[in-house]
Amino acid sequence: MATRTATPTASPQAAPISSRPAIRWDAVVIGAGHNALVAATYLAKGGLRTLVLERRDRVGGAADTIELGPGLRVPALAHTVGRLRPSVHRDLDLKRHGLSLLGPDVRVFAPSPDGSAVVLWGDAARTAEGLRERSASDADGYIAFDALVRSMGRFLDELGRSAPPDVEAPRLGDALTGLKLGKAFRGLGKHDSRTILRILPMAIADLVAESFETDAVQAAIAWRGVRYGAVGPWSAGTAATLLMDSAGNDGGAAGETVFARGGPGALSAALESAALAAGVEIRTGAEVTAITSKDGRATGVVLASTELIPARVVVSGADPKRTLAGLVDPVALGPSLGWRAGNIRTPGVVAKVNMALKSLPFFPSARKEGKEVLRGRIVVAPGIDAMERAFDASKYGATSEIPILEATIPSLADPSLVDGSRKGTHVMSVIAQYAPYNLRDGDWASHADVFGDAVIRTLDSVAPGFRKLVTHRQVLTPVDLERDYGLTGGHPLHAEAGLDQFYLWRPMLGHGRYRIGGLDRLYLCGSGAHPGGGITGGPGQNAAREILSDIRKRR
Question: Which pairing describes strands 117-121 and 404-408: parallel, antiparallel, or unpaired?
C-alpha cells in the first residue's frame, strides 16, 4: 500500500474491524479515477479532510497511459480527453499541475474499403467544402446540422451542470434550478425547443438521415450515438447520446478530439498533483471491500486488510452497481433498492486493442490530405447497416466479424509516447465494438486473440498491409475491464447511457442527486451518476458541490 500526501502525515494503522478508531476523515472517496480525484479536490478545497482509496497501484482508472513495450506508451482505455469541463480545468489549475492539451484541426477521418473517405474538421465550413465533392446536399445540410447539434449541446450542458430535482420532496433549490433550466430551454428558440423534444427519443440513424443522403457520412456522424453502448444506430434514444456527447465542448457534429501530452495518464497525474496540493491524502493498493453503516447512515469503509476507516461521509467513484450491490450491506440497503441496484444495466460490448506499428499505416483514401487527417479519430464504420449488423452479433452473444472501430495514432500528435531510438514507430489505440461481455460460445480467455485478429482485418481493409506493421498487440476484453478497472460488466461508462438511465434516472429514479435515498451520507461521484460517462469531470464536480452544500446545512 502506498500513501501520497502533499506533506508527510502519519497513516492510520491497520485495525481490527471490531475497533472504533476516532473519526479522522471528513470524507473518504472510493477509487481514484478522474471523477473521484476531481470530487476529492473540490472537497478538500472546501475545507474537508479527504482521503482517497484506490485498489490499483496508481491513480487514473480508465484515464491511464501504459507501457506496451520498451519505449512504447499507449492510452490504456480512453484515448482522448477533449470533453473535460473547462471549469474543472480552470478551478483546479491543471495547467500549473502539468497538463498540456493537443487539439488537431481534424476531428474524424472515416475511410471506407472502396478507397473513399469522409473527413470531419473542427471548422464546419471546411467540412462542408470537403463533403461537396461527394454530395452538394450533404454539404449544405452539414452546416445546419452542426449548428443544431451545438445549440442542443449548450442546453444539455446546462442540464448536466445541475443536480436533478428531488421529485418526491422538491425544495426551493429545485424550483430555482427549474427556473434556470426553463430560461435555458426558452433560449433555444421556438424551432430548436420543439426539435430537441422530438429528437431525444429518436434513433441516431433516423436523425442523420434527415440531413444527409450519403451512407458513409451518416455513419461517420452517427458513430458517437452508439459508442460504448450496447445499442445500434437503429436503437431508440441514441440521438440523445450524440447530443450529450456534444454538451459542454466545441465538438459540434464532428465531436471533440483532444489529446493530453503524455497520454491520458498525464491528465490523471495533473489531477493527482492538484489533489495533493489541496491537502488530499491518496492511498493506492487500498481495496475497499465494504461500506459500513449504522442507523441508516454511512459511517466509513473497510479495506481488504480489515482496516476500518470511519468518515463523516463516504463518496464512491466506483460504478453504482458495484457500490450498492457489492459494497453496501444488503440489510442496510433493503430488498427493494438492492433489487433495483442489481438491475442497473451495464452490458459491456467494448474491447480495447492497443498496438505498436513499425511505420505509419497507408490509407489510400488519405492520399489527398496526407497524414494530417490521421491526427484525429479514425472511424471505420462503412455505413449505417454495417453498424447495425455488427451490433446484431453482440445481441446473440457473438463478437462482430467486422467490428466498428474508433482508432487514434496518438504518437502523431505526441511523439513523446515513442522512444526516440524507435524512428518511424507509432502506437495505435483502438476502441472496438461489438464484443459482448457474455459470450454464447467459449470464453474471453480463448477468444481475445480471435477478436484482435478481426480488428486487424478490419483495419487492413482500409489500410492495405496494416497487419504486417504490427509489432506489439494488447487486447483488453470486457472481462479485463471489469477485473482490472472495476467496471461492472466491462461497461466503460459505469452504466448504459440510454434515456432510461439519464438525468433523473441515472442511476435510478429517486437516487439521481448523487445521494442514495435510505442511506444518508453515501454519495456517488463517478460516471454512473448524472450527467454520465466520458472524461468530463462533471459527475465529480457536481457531486462535490452537493456534498459541501449538505455539510454546510448540517452545521
Answer: unpaired
Q: b/e for 361-394, b at 16 or more Cβ within 10 A?
A: bebebbeeeeeebbbbbbbbbbbbebbbbbbebb
Q: What are phi and psi of 58, to 5 degrees?
A: -155, 165
Residue type, 144: A
Please, are residues 460 and 469 in contact by the beta-carbon 8 Å criterion? no
3-state secondary structure of 117: strand
Measured CA to CA, the distance from residue 111 to residue 130 in angstroms comes to: 14
Q: What is the pLDDT of residues 94-117, one digit of tens each?
A: 999 999 999 999 999 999 999 999
CB atoms under 10 Å from CB of 553, counted, come to: 7
The angle formed by the CA atoms of residues 264, 269 and 270, to the nearest 5 degrees, is 100
pLDDT value at 9 more than 50: no
Three cell numbers at 155? 442546453
Q: Distance of CA 469 to CAs 20, 142, 379, 382, 406, Å?
A: 59, 36, 19, 23, 18
At residue 218, φ and ψ (nearest 5 deg) are -55, -45
- Strand, helix or coil at 66? strand
Residue with cell 423534444: 197
Q: Which residues contact 81 (CB under 8 A, 6 or more apart)?
A: 63, 101, 258, 259, 260, 264, 267, 535
Place of cell 489510400: 364
Question: Is the bond leading into 113 cis (omega within 30 degrees of zero)?
Answer: no
Whether 8 shows a pLDDT value over 60: the answer reads no
**How would you write 298-341 as a 3-class SS string?**
EEEEEECCCCEEEEEEEEECCCHHHHHHHHECHHHHCHHHHHHH
What separation in angstroms does the CA of 246 have from each of 237, 241, 395, 422?
Answer: 15, 9, 27, 37
Which tens digit of pLDDT belongs to each residue from 411-446? 999 999 999 888 899 999 999 999 999 999 999 999
- Residue 68 has phi, psi (to 5 degrees) of -85, -30
Q: Which residues contact 43 (CB under 8 A, 6 or more apart)?
A: 26, 27, 29, 50, 280, 315, 544, 547, 548
Q: Are 52 and 276 in contact (CB under 8 A)?
A: no
Collect all residues with Cβ–Cβ distance below 8 Å to 28 and sequence separation of at least 6.
50, 51, 53, 300, 301, 309, 311, 313, 314, 315
Count how many residues are written for the chain: 555
Residue 262, CA distances (Å) to 62, 266, 270, 397 in order: 15, 5, 11, 36
Please state the separation of Cα 253 from the chain's center in Å.
18
